[in-house]
Amino acid sequence: MDINLLKTFLAVAGTGSFSAAAQEIHCVQSNVTARIRRLEQHLGKAVFERGRGGARLTDFGSRLHAHAEDLVARFEAAERDLLDAAGTSAPLKLGAMETTAAVRLPALLKSLKRKHPGAPLSLRTGPTAELLSLIWERKLDTAFVAAPVDEDRFRHKLAFHEDLMVVRSSESQSDQSLLAFRSGCSYRARGENWLASEGHSDTEIVEMGTLEGILGCVEAGMGFAVAPESAARKFHGISGLTLTPLPAPYGDVEVHLVWRIDHKPAQVHVTLCELLQTR
Amino acid sequence: MDINLLKTFLAVAGTGSFSAAAQEIHCVQSNVTARIRRLEQHLGKAVFERGRGGARLTDFGSRLHAHAEDLVARFEAAERDLLDAAGTSAPLKLGAMETTAAVRLPALLKSLKRKHPGAPLSLRTGPTAELLSLIWERKLDTAFVAAPVDEDRFRHKLAFHEDLMVVRSSESQSDQSLLAFRSGCSYRARGENWLASEGHSDTEIVEMGTLEGILGCVEAGMGFAVAPESAARKFHGISGLTLTPLPAPYGDVEVHLVWRIDHKPAQVHVTLCELLQTR
DNA sequence: GTTTATTATCACTATTAGTGATATATGGAT
DNA sequence: ATCCATATATCACTAATAGTGATAATAAAC
Question: Which nucleotides of C are covered by protein (CB under 7 A)?
């Protein structure tokens, strides 16, 4: 049995809800349902009463709760001790695309710090092409970039799926500038390819350095932008932005964690890879 | 992480060898290798020094060993407490083919008893057809029988693969009697089908009740028999028996654990299913 | 240098876990 | 009552992982 089941169980018990637990542990709700069911199947008795307001522990569930808290705590203590003893070594030089850094990394790095409290870590953002160069020059250990990557030179592991969206001001007219990151950004390349395929080869491109800047300008009616849905939503808020999916095949992007094929991953790096498994 | 990894680790540490550990925990050796590697990958450091005489704990491995013993013990204690609290309930009425009972069940039931020390359990042996009838009449909860089973009436879970062998006396001549269990035995049916396909429709069939009896008579030169390799080997020992595989498609048998489609499995039953996963 | 006992690797398959869309259920407003 | 908001369950699909059995590699002992 996997201790992940117990961690999921504790998350549900703690939040009092399957869906809240799913958010807390960064996975989809159906996943929590499945894990709790596995746990219940294994033990042969229900641990939660489900109802309107979420989930409440049954008597049997409380009994499990006592054991689970103890077991998980001891397990994590042991894990920390061992990871510590294994030697954390050098700082991990990490890179990521602007949007990934903004939306995906916070939760990820938080989990990483929980497992390697002492591990030093640096982060540099930039477009895919630049990050790959930095990795190749060994100035970064690893980075989150958009697929595909050259399999002969790099190893990689799938990290996230992003759906690219066209972001416009709600009152905007069409045929304005494309607001984008500087050249080398793969999202920008997607946008340009899409425009070309539509015959808009003359669209002006305005380069900007930050996502906030781009979205601000879009809101101000200067033009439109291409960004992952997750990132656009994060800054959506009250503002009058309209999101429409970038049509296939331009809209789907896989973000991978990438490193040099001859680079020996440090322990923090391996742990980071492990954390990517459930997202 | 799965506690199975820790159990595997303890088995290796205890026996001092990957292959011995594999036997102890009933799995193939490459499996142990893979699990230990997973563990080492997770922790980032080798836990065993491998060499001629097997495996010895590294310093780091000893550190893990201390934690692992504690964690596994606590985990199993908690599990026992919870399984106990869930209520063991009625005795499990189990059936199995003669050969399965002889060769496969001992290890399996031992593991089962470890998890449900108090669970009462009865075992009845018989050929596939008879066992299925007993299940249908609700005189058995579940049984190990040869595939295929009627999916509309039964649920099932794959338990073992068996390779059927023709067992002859080493000095025997061909065209003797087929020594077999009483009618309803699916292995016997396989043997008969094979004989028929070879044109030996006139072979005399001698019915016997036990595997030892059959193999004894084969050794005495009375005829030949059809039996799973695992069972034949168990009684092989010093005796002068020759095993040749029953040709395809007669030779491959899947043994499944089967129960009535409308039967609600008790907890012992569920645990038994879980134990089947790794064999 | 061959033998023997051991672990590692590999290609393949079976099984399991995860995903996202959608269905279902339940209490509370209106 | 009906609709709405908020839950969990289910499902078809895909990705990832673990298990298997054969074979290779390795190293000590003879």
Answer: 5-10, 14-21, 26-27
Q: Domains of chain B (ranges plus CATH)?
A: 3-86 (1.10.10.10), 92-161+255-275 (3.40.190.10), 162-253 (3.40.190.10)
Query: Straight-line distance from CA A33 to C1' D6, in Å?
Result: 16
Taken as a whole, chain B contains a residue count of: 279
pLDDT in tens, B163-214: 888 887 766 565 677 788 776 677 787 777 777 777 776 777 777 777 777 7
CA distance A16 to B272: 32
- With CA atoms as reference, the chain A residue closest to B46 would be A86
**Which residue does chain A place closest to B44, by CA atoms?**
A267
- Chain A contacts to B (CB-CB under 8 A): 1-4, 41-45, 60, 63-64, 67-68, 70-71, 74-75, 78-79, 81-83, 85-87, 266-267, 270, 274
Q: What are phi and psi of B106, to 5 degrees?
A: -50, -50
Q: What is the mean pLDDT of each run of 10 residues along chain A (279 residues)?
A: 90 87 85 90 85 81 90 90 73 84 80 77 83 87 85 83 79 68 74 75 72 74 78 64 74 84 81 77
Contact in structure between A148 and A158 (CB atoms under 8 Å): no
Work out the burial of residue B201: count CB atoms within 10 Å of its CB; fewer than 13 is exposed, 13-18 middle, 19 or more buried.
exposed
